[in-house]
Specification:
alpha/beta; 40% helix; 15 strands
């Protein structure tokens, strides 16, 4: 008499053999769960997307988590959306599924999602880091963390040395400075160049549409808006028809591969998100994350983040009298707009008259042409610009 464990093992072997003969796929398949509650387009929308994903890739097995439906797909039946989340987490933690796709999921602080879009300019795929979740309550720190999350995801998807660009939003220059410090410390980052004539790794809207970098770094709120626009600009917004969804939650020591869909995601995006989740599991995203965090931490990642959050001397706390006014026709770029007024006061304090303004690449400091070199030395020493800052 065989005990139950042996019976189950034999049963699984025969099932695997039957599946292999039917699909032509030998070896264990990647299992991707998807919760079916919560879509604005109904359960059927999710099921149809799941069936497409299953049909086009015999190396995966899609598991529906939700109410009983008329489908040949594997089903785990639950009664409510909340039950669906719990069952999804249980299946992941027990390694009964390799990744999962869901809607409206709450990640812990420190975890955010890396979306994947098809850009309209040249039909190129691009990762947007990040699109939901909160890497850090501090904007610049969060964007620096998002950069690593984007690199991890791209590498798990088979891009060995992904190019990185930083979207020109508030804090971008500080993010660039921090990433270049990490790069200098030994964690090599493949910075890309803008397609605009002035180049640089700070990306414009043109670069976004053209998909210039493999990984576009931005804050999560901006990333969320961008992915909604890339996903539904052809439909008016109520139905997301393009792309791969909002992507996997990535964070240090986070051990679940959970990808996010919007409640507005349509059938094509549902199918693509499942494929995205399967490929991340095949690419061993968890191990890649461990390796990348180890490497970046060895390059002083935590110390760089601490440096971003430490309180600078508050230039506003003391009265600084500006030097005598001068003609200011020399311009210095490369200063983040959030630090521009502080940089002006630093120069005043060092007896260099300066004004803030807008120049060829964004915010600039205006100084006398004869004092540009002196001003750059002061600003570089105080950490407001890098040696690669531009003179317009």
């Amino acid at each position: 008499m065989m005990d139950n464990n042996v019976k189950n093992m034999v049963g699984k072997v025969f099932k695997d053999m039957a599946d292999a003969l039917e699909t032509g796929q030998f070896g264990e398949r990647v299992r991707v769960g998807i919760t079916t509650f919560g879509s604005e387009h109904g359960v059927e929308n999710i099921v149809k997307g799941a069936e497409i994903a299953q049909k086009r890739d015999s190396s995966i097995e899609v598991v529906l988590i939700g109410p009983k439906v008329d489908s040949q797909l594997t089903q785990v039946v639950v009664g409510t959306e909340e039950e669906g989340y719990k069952k999804m987490e249980e299946l992941l933690d027990n390694k009964e599924i390799d990744s999962a796709v869901t809607m409206h999921y709450s990640f812990p602080i420190g975890v955010s999602t890396v979306g994947r879009v098809l850009t309209p300019g040249k039909g190129r795929e691009m990762f947007i880091a990040t699109t939901t979740g909160t890497s850090s309550p501090h904007r610049v720190e969060a964007m620096v963390m998002n950069s690593i999350y984007g690199i991890i995801t791209a590498k798990a998807m088979g891009i060995e040395n992904p190019t990185v660009g930083i979207l020109n939003v508030d804090g971008a220059v500080q993010v660039e400075r921090a990433l270049k410090e990490i790069d200098k410390n030994g964690y090599k980052i493949n910075f890309t160049n803008s397609l605009r004539a002035d180049g640089g790794s700070i990306m414009r809207g043109n670069d976004l549409l053209g998909g210039v970098p493999d990984v576009m770094i931005t804050d999560t709120l901006t990333g969320n808006i961008l992915i909604k626009m890339f996903s539904s600009y052809t439909t008016g917004g109520s139905y997301e028809s393009l792309g791969y969804g909002y992507g996997p939650g990535i964070g240090e020591d986070y051990d679940r591969t959970i990808l996010i869909l919007s409640r507005a995601s349509g059938i094509p995006v549902v199918a693509n998100a499942i494929s995205y989740g399967a490929n991340l599991a095949k690419g061993n995203v968890k191990e890649i994350a461990k390796e990348e965090f180890k490497k970046v931490n060895n390059a002083g990642f935590k110390e760089v983040l601490k440096g971003l959050n430490k309180e600078k001397k508050d230039e506003n706390s003391e009265e600084i009298t500006p030097p005598e006014k001068e003609i200011v026709t020399g311009t210095i770029s490369g200063i983040d707009i959030m630090e521009l007024e502080d940089a002006v006061k630093v120069l005043w304090k060092n007896k260099v008259y300066a004004e803030s303004g807008m120049g060829c690449t964004g915010p600039v400091l205006l100084v006398n042409e004869n004092k540009i070199e002196e001003a750059i030395k002061i600003l570089s020493k105080e950490g407001y610009i890098s040696n690669e800052s531009n003179i317009c």
